[in-house]
Each structure stands twice: as structure tokens, then as C-alpha cells.
Amino acid sequence: MRSKPRGEFWALAVATLFFNLGMSIFMFLYNLFMLDLGFREQSLGVLASAMALGSMVGTIPMGILARRLGTKKVLMTCLFLISLAFGVKVCLLWYPAQVAFSFLDGVMLCGWVVCLSPAVASVVEEPKRPFAFSVLFAVAVGSCSLGGFLGGHMPGWNQRLAAVSVVEGKRITLLIACIITALGAWPITRLSSELRTQEVRWFHRPSPFLLRFLLSSACWGAAVGAFNPFTSVFFTRYLGVQTAQLGSFFSVAQFVQAGAVLLVPLLVRRAGLITGIMFAQFATAATLGLLAAGHGLLQIELIYCGFMAAQHMSEPAIQSLLMDRVTVGERSVAVAMNFLVVSVAQAGAAALAGFAFARFGYPPVLPWVAGAVGLAAIIFRTLCGPSRAIVLESTLDSVA
What is the reported pLDDT for 375? Predict the structure, then answer.
């Protein structure tokens, strides 16, 4: 990491800290703030759908824009616009404006997701990328845990200090969260302008590896997306955990995830990149299966920590693999396509799993979800393994 004289990777890490801290505070409080103002779940659902639609619409355009303008400009612009849009939503409560700015938030969030991995790949050499992505994911998870804690306590602090109502205490906290998010643009100014790629084409045929990677990524996203959206419901309704207790437990679980993510370089060094990812994915499937058979709240909480740790251990290695195996000019579009594919797969899986959980309950369905996670690990090894890649790409080269 010291090979870069300007400390560009650490600038990205600090930007990630500000972004995730501000966003986690905002996301924790925003719905509660809107409920206090008289909005109902149906209205909040429309706003969430508008943000999701913006994310789906913005993925490919943001990837193309990053290749044309460079990741530095797109990251800074998106951070400012995200903060501005969130700030407007806190102050302007006209519902059509809420919908419009929620859509804009979704588009701008795509810019952050699409540009971050290519930016890291541009400033970190290939052998160090697993460690770099591990640090970045650990910073993100740790700052989200801190953000959840601050989001729960800052409204009360502001209410007492400023002598305002509960709603105004939340509004002040949300505006502070917008400022924290905007501060993420400051360390990005240290990035060099060379993050812009030389090759700029509006469309090109994806490489054979990218097509296989997207297929395996869709399977993995669908498998884990079948349970992740329902974790809070699983603990509150099925296990009877109180909301305050659940918040404390999730905060502890996120710190466990952050520690597990930092072990990814060791796993990759010992087992290799592909095998390390597969081991983490199989561990995810095994812990999810144990979750269905667990007895007692403490045992289930420990198993859940293992499940989340194993799941998040695969993510930095997967990002590193994608950045290593695509060309420099393909990175932004590759991340955008991956984000779009995973989002669509998770949305479909969540809808199907929600029906199954409501109809059959959690214990009968979770083993099937665990089996799907294990199958996704096998599909990943089959499609993205080195032997498969070498054989297929050699064949294509011979045909060409």
C-alpha cells in the first residue's frame, strides 16, 4: 500500500468510512422520521421502490459514464448529489418530490457502487487486491455498525441540546448524516486523474469470463437473497426478540463480520482465490443449514454470526477476482452489469422466499435455501474455476 506516494487506497478507505457512516445513520432514521410525520407503510414502500428502480435504471449508464469521465469525477459528483437529494427529502416533504428524489438517490448510489471497485483496482496492484478489498469491506461494515448506534442515540442528544421536539431532533440528525456523507468527497480529491480509462466505447461484447461470472453471480445473489431480507423478521416474529435487543445483536454481528473479512487475505494465500471463495460459500451454506436446526436463542445467534461472517468473507475475494480477470476498460461496465444482475436475482428470490416463509414457516424452508447456496458455490467453481476458464478461452482463441 505504501507504493502509492499519495496514499490513494487509504483515501478511498476514508471516503468509504464517511459514506457508510452517513448513509447508515440516514437509512436507520429516515423511515422513523417519515412515520412521525404521518406517512404510512404504503407510502414508504413506494419510496423504496422508486429508489430500487433508480438503482436498476442507473447501473449501465453509470458504468459507461465512469469509463468516459473517470471514476474520480463520478464518485465526487455522486457523493454530493446523494447528500443534496437526501437533504432535500428531509426538508421538502411534498410527496411527489420525495418520490423523484428517491429515484435520484437510487441512480446516484449506483455511481458509488459501480466506481468504487474499479477505483481500488486502479490504485492497488493485483497481488494486494484481496487485502485491499478486505480492508474496504471491513471499514464499510464497521462504520455501518457505528452508524446504527449513532442513529439510535443522536436524536435524543440533539433534542436535549437544542431543546426541540422529537421530530426535529431526528431531522437534525438526518441533516448531519447528509453532511457526513458529503465529507466522503474530500479524500477522493487526492485520487489522480489517471483513473480514467483510455478505451471508451458505448457498447462492446462482454468477454467469455464476464458472461460466466455474471451467471454464477446471479445464482449466488439469488441464493443468499432468499434469506437476507428476512433476518429481522426471523428474529422478531419467529424467535420473539425485542427490537432494542435485536439492534444490539446486529451491531455485534457486524463487528464479527468486519473481523472475518480481514481474514480473507490469509484464506486466499492458503487456498487460492477460487478455492477460497468456494470454501467461504460452502461455509455460508453449512451455517444456514445449522440455523434451521438450532435450538435456543444464544445458539441461533452464534450460528447467525457465523453465517454472516462466512457470507461476507466471499465478497472481497469475488470483487478481487472480477477486477483481476477483466480488462481495464471493462471494469466499470463489468461492475455495473454485476450489480444489475445481482439486484434482479435478489429481488426475484426475495419475492419467492417471502411467499414460502409465509406459507410454510422458516424451519422447513431454510434447508432448501441452504441447499441453493451450496449449489451456487458449485456453479461458481464450475464456471469461474481456472481450468474451465483456460479451456474455454483457448478454444475461443483457436476459433478466432
Answer: 93
Q: At what angle do helices 41-69 and 71-91 cross, to 10 degrees?
A: 160
Q: Which triple of cell numbers denotes residue 190?
A: 487526492
Q: Which residues contact 8 (CB under 8 A, 6 or more apart)?
A: 123, 190, 191, 192
359-391 pLDDT, tens per residue? 888 888 889 999 999 999 999 988 887 644 444
* Spatial contact of 289 and 170, defined as CB atoms under 8 Å apart: no
**What domains appear along the chain, each with residue ranges and CATH number?**
1-189 (1.20.1250.20), 207-400 (1.20.1250.20)
> What is the pTM (predicted TM-score) of this model?
0.67
Q: In Å, how far are 19, 113, 157, 323 from 118, measured between CA atoms?
A: 17, 10, 39, 7
